[in-house]
């Protein structure tokens, strides 16, 4: 097994890196040789002020281990502020090699009760934030003809969950954003991939547990360590993943899954075209056996993690 540090000489930005999954990714990036911009607003799960400085604490931890890091307190959900996050890397370390879009909030509520503010807040942080930070880094990646994006998607978007219309829409949007970035930036030797993490975090701890199904889902997630996600992030950000782009990986405890992406399942043709009546009479019976059930993420991943 190689002992070479996979991020030696690299500079990485990790957003939402003050706690949880982001913190573990920042620490491992640094342990693998990267200089790290530890970005975190220091806010609560719902986006409110917490008055803490977790980013600074992570920086101190990295430096105490002989690594290099700098704290950033700008918001990913603001275009100008996101630009400052990237500029922080350039000012502090002179370049940027990897962006990990991890910052996130939850405002779970059933769709029929969800407010416009709850919708916008989650979309702004997850989807807009991933675009803003990625877009700010793009000119630097183009100039140096290298770079890697790692985005965090979720089975809440890829599969579905109750009470997460805002979060699921944002996370499925991120999967598509990653694919488009991979296609547009391929000519500049820039890669873009997604991780769909299963891990206990402050965000997961805020999920409502009003039903036995919700309680079982959260209890299962409590057993999954946030640190298990970091190795995949480091790999995707490193040169070892130079052939990997446009993919979605789910990481659940010691399991790694390559997730499917939408492709045609079955098609039917009618020479004279279709009417609403013939769709009901002929198309529906032919296609129905391939319909996807309304399953939640927990129902699809129904076995215990190993």
UniProtKB/TrEMBL annotation:
This protein's name: SDR family oxidoreductase
Q: Which organism is it from?
A: Banduia mediterranea
What family name appears in the similarity comment? Belongs to the short-chain dehydrogenases/reductases (SDR) family.
Q: Per its UniProt record, what SMART domains does this chain match?
A: PKS_KR
Matching SUPFAM superfamilies: NAD(P)-binding Rossmann-fold domains
Q: Which residues form the Ketoreductase domain?
A: 10-206
**UniProt xrefs under PANTHER family:** BLL2957 PROTEIN (PTHR45024:SF3), DEHYDROGENASES, SHORT CHAIN (PTHR45024)
InterPro entries associated with the record = KR_dom (IPR057326), NAD(P)-bd_dom_sf (IPR036291), Peroxisomal_Beta-Oxidation (IPR051687), Sc_DH/Rdtase_CS (IPR020904), SDR_fam (IPR002347)
């Amino acid at each position: 097994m190689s002992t070479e540090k996979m991020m030696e000489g690299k500079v990485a930005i990790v957003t939402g890196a003050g706690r949880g999954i982001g913190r573990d990714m920042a620490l491992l990036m640094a342990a693998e040789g990267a200089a790290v911009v530890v970005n975190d607003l220091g806010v609560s799960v719902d986006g409110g002020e917490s008055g803490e400085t977790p980013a600074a604490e992570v920086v101190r931890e990295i430096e105490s281990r002989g690594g290099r890091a700098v704290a950033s307190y700008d918001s990913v959900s603001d275009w100008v502020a996101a630009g400052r996050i990237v500029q922080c890397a350039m000012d502090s370390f002179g370049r940027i090699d990897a962006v990990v879009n991890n910052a996130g909030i939850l405002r779970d509520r059933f769709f029929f009760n969800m407010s416009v503010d709850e919708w916008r807040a989650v979309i702004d942080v997850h989807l807009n934030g991933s675009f803003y930070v990625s877009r700010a880094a793009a000119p630097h990646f183009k100039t140096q003809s290298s770079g890697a994006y790692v985005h965090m998607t979720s089975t809440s978007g890829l599969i579905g969950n109750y009470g997460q219309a805002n979060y699921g829409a944002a996370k499925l949007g991120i999967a598509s954003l990653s694919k488009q970035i991979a296609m547009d930036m391929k000519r500049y030797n820039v890669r873009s991939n997604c991780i769909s993490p299963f891990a206990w975090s402050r965000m997961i701890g805020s999920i409502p547990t009003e039903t036995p199904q919700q309680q079982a889902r959260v209890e299962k997630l409590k057993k999954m360590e946030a640190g298990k996600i970091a190795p995949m992030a480091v790999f995707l950000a490193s040169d070892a993943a130079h052939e990997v782009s446009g993919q979605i990986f789910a990481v659940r405890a010691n399991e790694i899954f390559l997730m499917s992406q939408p492709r045609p399942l079955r098609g039917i043709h009618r020479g004279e075209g279709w009417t609403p009546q013939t769709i009901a009479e002929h198309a529906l019976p032919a296609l129905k056996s391939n319909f996807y059930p309304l399953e939640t993420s927990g129902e699809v991943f129904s076995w215990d993690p190993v």
